[in-house]
Amino acid sequence: MSPDATPHALAPALSVRDLRKTYDNGVQALKGVSLDVRPGDFFALLGPNGAGKSTLIGIVSSLVNKSAGDVEIFGVDINRQRGEAMRLVGLVPQEINFNLFEKPFDILCNYAGFYGIPREEAAARAEEELRRAHLWEKAQVMSRTLSGGMKRRLMIARAMMTRPRLLILDEPTAGVDIEIRRGMWKTLREINGAGTTIILTTHYLEEAESLCRHLAIIDKGTIIQQGSMKKLLSQLDVEGFLFDIDGDVPHALPDITGTKLERVDDHTIDLEMPRAMDLNRVFDALNAAGIRVRSMRTKSNRLEELFVRMTSREGQ
To answer: What pLDDT is recorded for position 1?
Structure first.
């Protein structure tokens, strides 16, 4: 179900201006952060541990008091209209924080009750969200019996019970295996596709690259880069590949201008080349040297490379 239209339909889903937070111990967690998230976007907030991600999310979700700055959610100021603003937000924290001795159906209905949703409507929503999370068959079992991936999907379903226009997920796939993670990606794409704006923090950078259209990178309390995923990734002028070779890799590899070609082991070659370069030129040179490529794969995640470059640059 798409979020209901409001008078603030043209406002950013999230607008943050010069946001600052200094804790009582003197630590400056945020040093003037500003960013906008468009309605309907799937937005990644990335940064190393201690960068300020959790503080930013805490302020936006009204769990942490800001020291200075302005935050609006779909045009609603979180200070002047806190209640209205919080009704627009759903938060999925990293920690499992529901009663493990309650049933999923009851967890969702009780959560809806906290927001004044009538029981009959809450029950209908609970079924809808549990089905979307592929948990309907588990609706009446004790939640402690659910797998780790099911528990995280249940937390997403719970957050969606209030029909939030902005869904914030803090490391939603932490600690789950890749198969479960990809199943959760499908659920999140469906939620976003139905119109809900999503902000995601994650340490799995391939997750951000796969899901998100825009991102901001925060480091030491400051936004060091933000924009479209495609535009930021275009800044990378080097691509890396690993070639699996038929037979043994010779110790003397061909010299291909503009590339870096290295032997990894008896059957693998490491290649770095400019993104604009034609890969066929590399294959032609390898073939001329009698080296036959059996298969190839990308060497590293492009977003991870960009992230490392930017945070390293800021530390210099």
So the answer is: 40
